[in-house]
């Protein structure tokens, strides 16, 4: 771009014309018959200089466009997201029901009565396309966790970044009971893979405990400007735990998670528990750890937020028997103390 003034100068009577005038006196005087010949020579030289400059500067411009502008075009294409991914093509849906054991997809529940809509609300409500269209290129979205403030729902989820090929934590907002979602952006982006953004409130603060096992530890972040700004509060465990959550139960806090790095551990078949007086720790291991080290189809790996229904605590687990994330199993927690645990399968 800095060469453009030079082109304008040569064509408008700048230094280029002065250079030709200085050479026009060579080989004849200005009034003789040789003058016309010299003039033609001058004009020919000027024309040749102009053409030469045009070709050189044009070549420079072409190279610039090829290596700089074309890179932006390629980036724009990549920013579309939803590329083929070896991890699958996950999306997020919303389900409603009178109980956690009687759920229907959002299209079967009249939560939005906007008759002016071009089409009815239907699952999936968040996909790689909806996130990519908002300017955050994604190959898939997964691991959704809801957080509610009044009538506003926030959904935190893993998004597979199309460019970096690693998981970041995205967040979307809904003010119509989950019918439509506005993408707010990336809430957390580290130099390592993130997923499973377990969000909870404690003592007036909002915390996020994402899975970041690639870093080799379990980290707790606190919101400094909810929902998009988070800062590291503390490393609560020096273990590469996968898909962990924290629950309060009978005056104590319990942390459920899987560590696939130990010798003899069955991947997606191991589950361990820790307990503490506070979600901030320190954490002590359960005496019966690992409480599961079984077949991966049995739901040992956590599958979402635990919940209480009719006074009873339940935990969800992933059935990864035939394929990863094939289905969810629900467990009723009958007894949970620092020394004893007893979980039974209540629904497949």
In a few lines, what is going on in this structure?
This protein has helices at 4-11, 15-23, 33-78, 128-133, and strands spanning 95-99, 102-105, 138-149, 152-161, 167-174, 182-188, 195-202, 205-211, 218-225, 229-237, 242-249, 252-258, 270-276, 284-285, 292-293, 301-302, 307-309, 312-319, 327-336, 341-347. By secondary structure, it is an alpha+beta fold. It has a domain at 91-238: 5 Propeller (Tachylectin-2, Chain A).
Percent strand equals: 35-45%
Largest sheet: 5 strands, antiparallel
Please compute the radius of gyration using only Cα atoms: 33 Å
In one word, what is the shape?
globular
**CATH homologous superfamily name of the domain at 91-238?**
Glycosyl hydrolase domain, family 43
Which bin fits the share of residues in helices?
10-25%
Provide the CATH top-level class of the domain at 91-238. Mainly Beta
Counted by DSSP, the helix tally is 4
């Amino acid at each position: 771009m800095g060469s453009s003034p030079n082109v304008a100068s040569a064509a408008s009577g700048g230094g280029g014309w002065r250079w030709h005038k200085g050479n026009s006196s060579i080989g004849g005087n200005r009034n003789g018959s040789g003058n016309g010949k010299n003039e033609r020579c001058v004009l020919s030289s000027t024309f040749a200089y102009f053409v030469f400059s045009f070709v050189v500067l044009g070549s420079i411009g072409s190279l610039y466009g090829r290596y700089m502008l074309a890179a932006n075009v390629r980036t724009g294409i990549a920013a579309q997201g939803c590329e083929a991914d070896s991890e699958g093509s996950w999306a997020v849906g919303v389900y409603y029901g009178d109980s956690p054991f009687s759920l229907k997809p959002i299209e079967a529940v009249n939560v939005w009565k906007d008759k002016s809509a071009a089409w009815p609300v239907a699952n999936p409500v968040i996909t790689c396309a909806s996130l990519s269209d908002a300017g955050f290129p994604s190959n898939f979205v997964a691991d959704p966790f809801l957080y509610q403030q009044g009538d506003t729902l926030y959904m935190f989820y893993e998004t597979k970044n199309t460019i970096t090929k690693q998981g970041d934590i995205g967040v979307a907002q809904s003010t119509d009971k989950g019918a439509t979602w506005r993408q707010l952006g990336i809430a957390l982006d580290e130099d390592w893979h993130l997923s499973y953004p377990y969000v909870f409130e404690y003592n007036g603060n909002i915390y996020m405990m994402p899975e970041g096992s690639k870093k080799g530890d379990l980290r707790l972040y606190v919101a400094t400007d909810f929902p998009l700004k988070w800062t590291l509060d503390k490393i609560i465990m020096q273990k590469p735990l996968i898909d962990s959550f924290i629950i309060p139960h009978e005056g104590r806090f319990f942390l459920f998670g899987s560590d696939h790095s130990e010798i003899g551990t069955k991947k997606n078949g191991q589950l361990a528990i820790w307990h503490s007086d506070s979600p901030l720790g320190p954490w002590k291991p359960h005496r019966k750890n690992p409480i599961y080290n079984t077949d991966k189809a049995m739901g040992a790996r956590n599958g979402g937020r635990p919940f209480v229904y009719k006074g009873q605590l339940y935990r969800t687990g992933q059935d990864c028997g035939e394929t990863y994330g094939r289905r969810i199993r629900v467990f009723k927690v009958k007894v949970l103390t620092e020394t004893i645990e007893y979980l039974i399968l209540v629904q497949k």
